Amino acid sequence: MKQLVLENVSYCPKNSTEKILDQINGEFLTGKIYFILGKKQTGKTTLLSILAGLVRCTEGKILVDGEDLSLTNQDDFRAEKICCLFQNGNLVNDSALANLELEMLLSKQPNRTDELINSLQIAGLTDKKIKTNIKKLTKKERQMVYLAKILVSRAKLILLDDPSQLFSELDEEMIVRKIADFCRRNDKCLVIVSQSNNAIKFADELWGLNGGKLLFIKEQPR
Ligand SMILES: Nc1ncnc2c1ncn2[C@@H]1O[C@H](COP(=O)(O)OP(=O)(O)OP(=O)(O)O)[C@@H](O)[C@H]1O
Questions:
Q1: Does the C-beta of 143 come closer than 6 Å to ligand 1?
Q2: Domains along the chain?
Q3: Quick check: CB of 46 below 6 Å from ligand 1?
Q4: Which of 48, 59, 205, 208 has the most CB atoms within 10 Å of its CB?
Q5: 26-40, 65-79, 184-198 — which is least confidently predicted?
Q6: In whole angstroms, how far apart are CA 179 and each of 46, 156, 166, 214?
């Protein structure tokens, strides 16, 4: 994936007349970092779910390298092109290492155990904790696993739902810097939705969302 384009994307849940997203237009390019800022309940997670191919927009379309996402194989798109972390970090009830191995399986990558262990160590986990069930890890250690999940991903599009929550026990700025560096180095596109502007200095572009509408897109000089 090199480019993802949103064309008049709107979302209105079934049995509702109120649009949660209203005519969003914009594009995301690989190698760039995007911050979508908005207060609570402004549609950030909904937009992320649509970008991740988990929810279909009810109007408009999303083009992935020129191809309409709704006409492509969504399972392949989710498995191979996207790494998405929502606020609960999406971990399963097993060890940190097993979680990363599962990620490899789901994204159809070969199991690179040494690399997975290395990423968990870089994220801050000890060798013992790497093999411990995530239920026995502290919240801080589980958040280290979230970071490792991103660092092992081969996906071109990384989606993060509010790092101030996702990495609440860690140094948010340092973590976003690490992820942003990783994305730039590997020519990935990073899209972060957030209520806080603690780490916006790492963004190439800021998007302002309010009441489901995109108020502005602002480029940041680097
Ligand atoms: N499928 C749905 N059916 C009904 N309402 C929904 C649905 N999906 C989202 N909403 C509503 O849309 C609004 C925006 O939700 P969303 O989670 O996208 O906002 P957000 O900006 O991510 O919020 P927060 O910052 O609190 O996580 C909320 O009021 C939510 O309850």
A1: no
A2: 3-219 (3.40.50.300)
A3: yes
A4: 48
A5: 65-79
A6: 22, 13, 13, 25
